[in-house]
């Protein structure tokens, strides 16, 4: 299990389904996939009691996987109620349900759900989609970056290179790399980076370019042919985790 997998596996996932057999199956699928903190509830009232109680406040969920068709309160109403609890106002949620009508999908997404998976489903698809939601929603919390020629520990501003050597990031290099890491795989414009790191886009482009050159000397095996921190001509920069575009 790599660092990212270990990081995701510690996230608390709350399952809610009124079918006991399916609920047990979901819990088994997730635990066998390596998730270490799975809580299963047989209905909306139970999960609301947990989330409103002391334990739910002290140990909040990181992702809800909700059935839609439940007696007394459907999944849409449940998510709406969960959104009224302060610490769960923005917690990611997925709907896992036999209903796959377009209006139902729009209802779920309109409430801020992050994914909508119809039953029946393939266990591996469920796991991949759960990981995708967690990775997207909590990307800025993961302190480790796995790049082509090194691993970067953002919590210690340290570059652990594949040749066994280490390098320390300066404060500004750390700031720039953190911005790129939060948007890994996507283009970040020069103006956006300057705004985030200097508070303005005016007058800092040359300074940014100099910091990018020094960053590449620390994180790339060949700084003149970067594969992790790449330039997108005319737009900005993109950080590629794993070294593949």
Q: Which structural traits does this protein have?
A:
10 helices; five-stranded parallel beta sheet; 18% strand; single chain; 245 residues; 42% helix; four-stranded antiparallel beta sheet; elongated; alpha/beta
Could you give the order of strands across the largest sheet? 2-1-3-4-5
Query: Considering DSSP H and I runs of 4 or more, what fraction of the residues is helical?
Result: 40-55%
Give the rounded overall mean pLDDT. 88
Radius of gyration: 21 Å
- Overall geometry comes to elongated
Structure overview:
The structure is a single chain. With 245 residues, this protein is α/β, with parallel strands linked by helices. Helix content is 42%, strand content 18%. The chain has ten helices and twelve strands. It has helices at 3-9, 20-32, 44-52, 54-58, 75-82, 102-110, 123-137, 171-182, 190-198, 205-219, and strands at 13-16, 38-41, 63-66, 93-97, 115-118, 144-146, 150-153, 158-161, 166-168, 188-189, 229-232, 236-239. The strands form three sheets. Strands 2-1-3-4-5 form a five-stranded parallel β-sheet, with helices on both faces. The protein has a four-stranded antiparallel β-sheet with strand order 6-7-8-9, with no helix packed on it. α8 (171-182) crosses α10 (205-219). The protein is elongated. 28% of the residues are buried.
């Amino acid at each position: 299990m790599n660092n990212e997998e270990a990081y995701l596996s510690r996230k608390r996932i709350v399952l809610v389904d009124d079918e006991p057999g399916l609920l047990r199956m979901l819990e088994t699928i997730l635990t066998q996939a390596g998730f270490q903190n799975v809580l299963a509830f047989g209905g909306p009232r139970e999960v609301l009691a947990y989330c409103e109680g002391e334990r739910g406040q002290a140990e909040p969920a990181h992702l809800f996987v909700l059935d839609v068709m439940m007696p007394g309160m459907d999944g849409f109403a449940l998510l709406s109620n969960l959104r009224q609890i302060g610490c769960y106002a923005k917690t990611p949620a997925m709907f896992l349900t036999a209903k796959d009508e377009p209006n139902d999908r729009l209802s779920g997404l309109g409430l801020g759900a992050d994914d909508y998976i119809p039953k029946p489903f393939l266990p591996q698809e469920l796991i991949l989609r759960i990981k995708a939601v967690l990775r997207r929603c909590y990307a800025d919390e993961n302190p480790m970056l796995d790049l082509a020629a090194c691993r970067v520990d953002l919590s210690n501003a340290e570059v652990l290179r594949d040749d066994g050597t280490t390098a320390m990031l300066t404060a500004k290099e750390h700031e720039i790399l953190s911005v790129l890491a939060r948007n890994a795989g996507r283009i970040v414009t020069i103006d956006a980076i300057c705004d985030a790191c200097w508070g303005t886009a005016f007058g800092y482009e040359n300074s940014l370019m100099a910091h990018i050159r020094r960053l590449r000397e620390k994180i790339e095996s060949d700084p003149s042919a970067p594969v992790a921190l790449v330039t997108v001509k005319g737009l900005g920069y993109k950080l590629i985790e794993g070294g593949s575009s």
